[in-house]
Structures are given as structure tokens and as C-alpha cells.
Design goal:
The chain is mainly α. It contains twelve helices and no strands. It is globular, with a radius of gyration of 23 Å. 25% of the residues are buried.
Amino acid sequence: MNKKFDFKKLYLILIMIFFYAPIVYVVIFSFNESRSLTAFTGFSLRWYEKMFKSRSMMESVYYSLLVAVIATIVSTIVGTIAAIGLSKSNRVIRELVTQVNNIPMLNPDIVTAIGLMLFFTTLNIPTGFGTLLLAHIIFCIPYVMLSISPKLRQLDDNIAEAALDLGCTPFESLVKVIIPQIKEGIISGAIVAFTMSFDDFVISYFTTGPGINNISTYVYSASKRINPSINSLSTLIVLAITIVLIIMNVVPMLKERKVVKNEKNY
């Protein structure tokens, strides 16, 4: 029993090292004084200063955030409406659309990327910010629908009908009854959509145009030469993600404690 426990513990440690050692390495060498990526010669913030002075790097951050935010908002709205409408459809149509919706998620990214590139080329649409944004919206919608569908299956169909009987319009029933019941799925879908958009490389690479780079395509083009500023950019992204994760985990805990405290007071 002890040997088995020790093996599991060792296996867990090795997995943690495998995942986090590269991140720690990048963070450490983002403060390196020299351009070397193998020898730490001294502490310095020069690469952070260079990063903020680099117009191309700041533009890549700007485009990444802009595309991710717009794609998240649009795909969440479209995906939510589509999922709600699909839940009210007959079984055959629902199963058919669900299978079609799963194709982009099951396909390799390269297949989706080439398909979108050929689609834009066939329609003579010049690649640029518009095609990049449209591509991100298209491949984010299925993830939103997938996150919302389980919540809709748990929803009682009589709730919406009861709201209509009590005088609500269909829109009021949607906004005041259905959406509050599935808000957890909507939030999860939005988070997944933002993550997929912000992190994407393959689809961005095939659908963007000259002068339009997000972080992933910029890092790919800059990786062919030594550029320690990329380590600084990566470190700030890791820091931002860590802060968001802490907030997402701490805030619900604080709310739960507040509810428990109020219940005890009563």
C-alpha cells in the first residue's frame, strides 16, 4: 500500500515538473540581463522595457485582446440563441445539428483553418482583420453551444410556458426566465470561447492578412531569431491568467462564506 502511494506521489510530482518547469524557465529568463537563453547573467528589466517600446508586439497584444473580446461576445450571443432554439426543435433536427456542431471541435485545427482560408479565397475576400475575426467567431460558436446544451437539458420546459401564461412576452421569458437558469453554462461557454480565441495559432495563421498579427502568430514569426522580449510577454500573460484564476476561485468562496455567515446570524 505504501509503495503504491509513493509511486502515485512520484508520478504526480513528475507531471507537475513536466508542465510547470518550462513556465518557470521562461519567467526566470525574462529577467535575464543578456540575450542568452541558457545562461542567467544578472537581473534586469530591460526586456520588459523593450517589449513595451515594441510597436509590433503591442499591436499583437491589442489585436489578440480585441479579436478575443469581440469573438467571445458575438459567439456567446449567437451560440446561446442557437442552443435555445435547437432545444425547442424536433429530435431529428436537434441530433443532426448537434452532430454538425461537433465537427469543428473534432476536426484538427489545420483542417478547419484550410477550409476557412479556401472559403475566403473562393469568395475573393481579402484576408485581414475581418477574416481573422470572422474565423474566430465561427470556431468559437460550437464551444458555446456545447457548454449551454447540458443546462438546457436540465431546464424544465414548463417554466417558459408558465412565464408566458403569467403575461411575459417571448423576449421577456427568454431574458427573465430562461437565461438566468442557464447563466452558468453561458459564462462557461464565454470563458472557453475567449480562451480558444486568445490561444489560437493555426486558424489565425491561415486566415489573417499582412500587418495583422495576434500574439501567437507574432511569437511564431519572432521565434526564428532570439528575442528575449517574448519571454517578458509570456510572463505577463501567465501572470494575468494566474490572477484571473485566483479571482474566479476566491470570489465564489467569499460569496459562499458570506451566505453561510448570514444564515448563522439569522
